[in-house]
Amino acid sequence: MGQTCGMPSSETEPATPVGRVRPAVDALPAYKPGKAAEQAEREHNIAEAIKLASNENPYPPPAAVVDAVAAACRGGNIYCDHRATAVREALADRLRLAVEQVTVGAGSVALLYQLATAYIDPGDEAVTPWISFEAYPISVQTMGGTLVRVPLTTDHAFDLDAVAGAVTERTKLVLLATPNNPTGTAVSTTAVSRLLESVPGDVVVLVDEAYREFADPALGDPVTELLPRFDNVAVARTFSKAYGLASLRVGYVMAHPEVVSAIDKCLIPFNVNGLAQAAALAALSDGATGEAQANIDTIKAERGRLAAALTADGWVIPDAQANFVWMQLGDRTDEVCIALEQRGVVVRPFSGVGVRVTVGTPAQNDRFLSTLAEVARPG
Ligand SMILES: *Cc1c(COP(=O)(O)O)cnc(C)c1O
Asked: The pTM is what?
């Protein structure tokens, strides 16, 4: 614009755009994170709000992780290992995979974006059951691709036949969150293997297991059951939820070495920072894993208690396999969420569809249940 200050010279003159943003980016919806408790407190002029809106672990990271991160701070002046080699090796060792089959990212969301960057050209398609993770449309549309959404069944489950049926020659990716966010329902490894048998081998199927540790182990393990059989399956996991490392940003993908190297090419330099790498390594130690497992057990027990209490009150709750419960409130969603929030209980609304409530500490869950009973009745 050639002016010294950044503002247009006149309000009547049509503003010259500052740069020509790509249409795909211009059209993007913004990712909406769950509202922080502090923000709700300010907005409603209340105190002691609790956040059950982002599927966070209510417990801090294992002690060994906190210590390792504190120690790693001292090396903060030196660039970390771009490839997070030690973390890859530790994961490969634990998962009995070749190190070439493992990649590490700044959260599994970063790996999702890298996957989209590696595989989606303008006009390409990715297929996903919907409603699902809200980062899926953004990652695909950023690349100029289209996310083809296949409706869930009436009991909030995936219709994998319909997913297979939606695959066309334009399809590059299939994105399956299991357990699904936000419905909490899960599909078995056997069901995913049938899907893999019916989609072309050059379509990468991402099995996003961000909540795996909370799910019924009887659903199966795609790493041991699918990875050896299908070159086009990729499995994503994360330290964010079960290990309580959400803010440290570290997740991983297991896949065929060719898929791993494509994802790696799209890694922003040093994106998995040194503190995140130290945290992940410490999280894989026996002591930390034991601590995390104790928290997972508590959260699963609380999820059962929450679902049972809601069901006893007459709410219909789909099978909950993650660290949250889903209430399909339809048109009442926003109204119920605002009423809860005004009383200091921040949950996650999906406008017009339903509300996702993260399992918190026992006291937080009690507070949610009693506040819900004040503001809404089933019906
Ligand atoms: C929370 C979540 C993730 C993981 O996010 P990170 O980037 O690893 O923190 C991935 N997929 C789904 C479906 C999620 O809900």
From this structure: 0.95
What are the residues facing 46 on neighbouring strands?
Answer: none
- Is any ligand 1 atom within 6 A of the Cβ of residue 133? yes
Task: Look up tokens 């990875």; give the residue.
Answer: 227
Q: How far apart are CA 259 and CA 255, in angstroms?
A: 6
Q: Does any ligand 1 atom lie closer than 6 A to the CB of residue 134?
A: no
Q: Is 195 in the pocket of ligand 1 (CB under 6 A)?
A: no
Contacts by 372-376 with C-beta closer than 8 Å and gap 24+? 372/310, 372/336, 372/340, 372/345, 373/313, 374/343, 375/336, 375/339, 375/340, 375/343, 376/329, 376/332, 376/336, 376/339
- Closest C-alpha among 332, 338, 342 to residue 378: 332
For residue 218 the two structure tokens come to 């009887």
Pocket test for ligand 1, best of 240, 250, 326, 348 (most atoms within 8 A of CB): 240
**What is the C-alpha separation between 338 and 332, in angstroms, rounded?**
10
- Whole-angstrom distance, CA of residue 189 vs CA of residue 182: 20
User: Is the CB of residue 174 less than 8 Å from the CB of residue 197?
Assistant: no
DSSP state of 83: T
Neighbouring CB atoms inside 10 A of 36's CB total 14
pLDDT, one tens digit per residue, over 343-366 is 999 999 999 999 999 999 999 999
C-alpha span between 262 and 264 (Å, rounded): 5
How does pLDDT run across 33-78, given as a tens digit for each residue? 889 999 999 999 999 999 999 999 999 999 999 999 999 999 999 9
What is d(CA 160, CA 150) in angstroms, rounded to the nearest whole number?
A: 9
DSSP-assigned letters across all residues of 150-161? EEPPTTS---HH
What atom in ligand 1 is closest to the CA of residue 110?
7
3-state secondary structure of 164: helix
Tell how far the Cα of 214 is from the centroid of ligand 1, in angstroms: 14
